[in-house]
Amino acid sequence: MPHLSVNRSSKPNCRTVWLISVLVGLLAIHTYANDVLPVPQQVSLSANMDSQQLSISWLAGAATTFDLVILRTELDETVLSETVSVMVSQLSGRHEWNWTSVEPLECTSLSIKIRSREGQTTSEWSNTEILQGSDLPSEENFQIFPLDKVVPVGANTTFCCIMKEGNQFGKIRYGNTDLISTRLSRRSYATTVFNQGLSSSSGSNVICYDNTEQLITGVAVFVGYPPLPGDFVCETRDLTSTVCLWNERRDTNLYKSRGTRYTLNNRPCALEWSRNPQKEYRVANWEGKWTLVAVNALGQYSLTDSAKLSHRVNPVAPEHLTSVVHALNATVLWQLKYDGYYSLALVCQVELTSQGYKTKHTFTGVGLRSAVLPDLYPYEDYSVQVRCGAQQNFWKWGSWSETISFKTSSLVPESPDMWVWMNKDYTGQVMWKPLTRRQSRGLMTGYEVTLWSPEEHLQHTEIVPLDIFAVPINLTQIATVSSDNMVMATVTAKNTEGVSQPASVLIPLRLTDVDPLAVSRAVYTDQGFSLFWQSDANATFAYVVEWCNASCKWNCLVDWINVAPGNTNVSIESANFQPGVRYNISLYSSSSEAPELLQRWQGYMQELVPSSPVMSLLTTQQDSDILLSWEQIPLVSRRGFVLGYNIYMSSGSQFTLLANLSDPGSRSYKVKSMPEGSYKFTVKAYTSAGEDTGATASIMLEPFTDRLILEILASLGVTALFLVIVTFICYKKRQWVKKAFYPDIPEPKLPGDWSRSQAPLDVKPPHHSLVHMVERPEWDSSKEALVVIPEEDEDEDGQGIGEALADTDEPTSLRYYNQVVDERPIRPRYPDSSDSSASSLDSARTDVTYTGIQTSGSFVFQLDSHGSSEGHQPQADPSFCAGGGGGYRPQMQSRVVSDDTGPASPNPYPDPEAASGGGYKPQSSWQMDSPVEDGEGGSRAPSLGSPTSIASTQFLLPDGEEHTEEKRQPSSSAATWLTNLLSSTKP
Amino acid sequence: MADQEQQEHEEQSPALDSPVPGPTETGRAVSIARLLHYECGLLMQLYKEKESFLSSFSPGGGRMVSPSPVSLEEASGEQRVERLHAALRQCLGLLHCVLLKEEEEWGEQEEDYETLKKNVRVRLEHLLLCTRGLLEGPDTALEVTPDHQGTEEPDGARGVFGLKVWTYRVLLELHHWADYAAETLHIFHTERGGTADL
Predict the structure, then answer these.
(1) pLDDT digit string (tens) for A728-770?
(2) Inter-chain contact A256–B107, Cβ cutoff 8 Å?
(3) Among A176, A376, A473, A548, which is least packed by CB within 10 angstroms?
(4) Which CATH number is B145's domain given?
(5) A488, A454 in Cβ contact below 8 A?
(6) Residue ranges making up the domain that contains B83
(7) With contact defined as beta carbons under 8 Å apart, do A378 and A411 qualify?
């Protein structure tokens, strides 16, 4: 602030002057500023409707910064308000600024005004310039913009629709999609499509509808890619001009008028439009360097190439091909199109096609115009085409010439490939393989088969038509069967040119039933049956490998191949190989001698499961075992190498694997220790492919009756042996037995003189000596009892009794039968009834014979002493004491003797010695409940006083035990027999 | 067989005495017209599938083909066929124009569409030859070349979209006149003694 001094006294109006000066200064500054920022003048607008770009230019002196405002005129909406820096164009001397509108510039009118700016200082606004839109009232039509625009994929495009005057806006659709629109003016509406995808080849439709959807207008928009050419290269074909080639690496999706345009070295390429991406353009001379520019509405792309002419020679196709043909070769000749080629070193390729197979032969030479094709087949159709390239600096092969065809001449046929199959009776067949077309080497007429016996000079020739390839032979008709003789079989083929060389096989006249070698297994692989064999290092002969179906035995249809000498392996493959068929493969030597079988294989192309199960499956019972046996599957049905058998036992639908027999030779299997019942067995053979359906057999396992019979017989034998041993022992020990069981009864020592009558005293028992059974109603039938046979009956029917007891040694005077069964424990034996003993002691001479003592075996010798003591000791009646526990009592003189004998044995337990002194051991199984009346018991008395032979015939049987007795009868008989035996041994 | 030959002889016999074509020619013309109508329908359907917006679009603008007005009630059969022939020539002119414009715009398009377009053109040319054969006499010489008299572009739509709408109108016009041809020729055929149930 300038220092300003004011003298108040001398100049009293100084402050006022200062203020005025300041204001004037400020005014001057403001006035100067307005003079420096000029208002833009002569604002000019230039619109590019396609690019939607607006160019604005104006005059504004040296100003460089401007404020620009763009408004939609009709609605006064600001489209742009921006401060920009714009320099003066050196060319026009004007400020120029470009602006690209989002909306098409036709959509509505735009107002543009500009002012200069420097810092915060701005000039006045320029006059407003208006870019007229198409929505002016003067243009009443229904319009839509932009028209047929081309945009890249992914672009966003804004469309606007100007409604027809008087119509209301409806909607804008892009394809099948309704878009959201904004209003730009009274009649103009805009919408934007984002991220556009490829359009159809005819363009995507953008359609504007009025509110009735009756009136529409639309445009198409093409969405594609900028050009992307590639593989650009230039070459020469005539050694003068240039041909440039390239391709479109990407379909731009823009066609025809919107398609890509090309320039080569800045000259437009007048290419006929095509959708083919391969492009080719010809230039009259060789420039050595080329630039290709590809342009479309979305962009451009350029490529370059450069080369010497000699490095880019691509010869045109040879012309006018001709041929000179022979049987085994041909010469092909051609012409070259351009004279320059005649001095050019060329490499040419001849492609030979025959029967679909193509081979290429290459030839070189300066100006090459012919080539000789060797190694052709006679009588063969060929076609030939030729192409060439520069031999030096080879660039690429030229185009193929036109194709010419020719046919080579005929020759005599090749020798047939023949073989002989011999049966084992000197018959067989000569076979040969039909000649192929190439082997025929001409038009075939037939075959000739000759059999010749060198020893006997016999020859047989047969002419065979073309369609026959095997002839049966019988060697016995040609030569005598002898081990030294041989027959040579020869086959020749004939065509129109002549006869082939003969093919022959020497056939020995000896039986060929040798199966000389172990048969190996041949494995089939992708290459067929792979065969290997050992070869003698000195062997010079070739081989023949022959194969046929192994199940064939007679005139088999065989196939064969020839193997060159020195080979030790070969793979055989045939279209006739079938799965599941076993093939015999034989290796023969092939020389001037007769073929010799060297090795044999068997194999399957593919093993299958057997087609039929094992044969004759049988089941046999062996005791408790079951033997399964079967026969092997026929060869034709095996369809594979049988690896073994699986044995199943089936119950219903379930199979239980019993065994896996891995031995293919197994023919039987034994199922052991099976209980009785019904069984079903299935035997399945298996190959590497699996097991067959199986053969099934059933069996009903019967009880083993033989064994039971054997067991019974063995038991009986053992029993008999035991009895024999017992008898033998008893016999040997009879003294001891007698002593133990039948001690000698001491003879009574009688005082006085007992004269004896000379005649034996035959004492018959009185009637009263019989035991009388007294019926007791209260008797318990379950208990034992004595059965009494009344003596009266015996008297009356004595004969009958005697018959019933046939084993009695002598007429029975008195017999005892003890049939009492004692259920009580067996007791030791005690002396007999004291009554009887006493009676015996008292008798002068008593000849007592006990016969027919019938008792149970155990009863006689094993009386229970305890039982006697316990059961009978308390009894008061002494007559019963001795027999306590016994089942019977010996018959006594009941009334007469009872009084005497009563006191004779007061002791119920007599001394055993005394008892033994009694002379015998009567059966003493007396039971307490024996039906004995006390009265009668009391009257019993032993018959003493006279020697008495007593025989008792009473049967002592319990009532109601008939049945039991019947059962026991055998044992009683045995006891009787034993007793008699012992008795008979008594000295 | 002999009866059939005799019948054919009887049918042809009036033609020998008169320039009026027999039922065989008219019948063939009817068949071709019907085939043309069928193929035009197919072509139109294919085009609507190609340009889906046409499925809900009914172009206005009236007939594109307008042969010389003849009172149909008073016209003879020959006059109706002659009017038909003129209309078909204009149709052929329009079709040629469509082929040309589409080729200029897009080049070769989808194969089935291009094939069907060419088939319709050939069929239409064949029908023109037939109708000319029906009418031709010693004093008449009808043209069978395209008549571009009716070629026009629709108002209100320019550019590619306008071409599409105009093409659709041409196809509609073809379909209409093919149908008219089949009907007119059938009437003419029956007037010439042909069977109605052809």
Answers:
(1) 998 888 888 888 887 777 776 666 555 554 444 454 544 444 4
(2) yes
(3) A176
(4) 1.20.1250.10
(5) yes
(6) 24-52+75-191
(7) yes
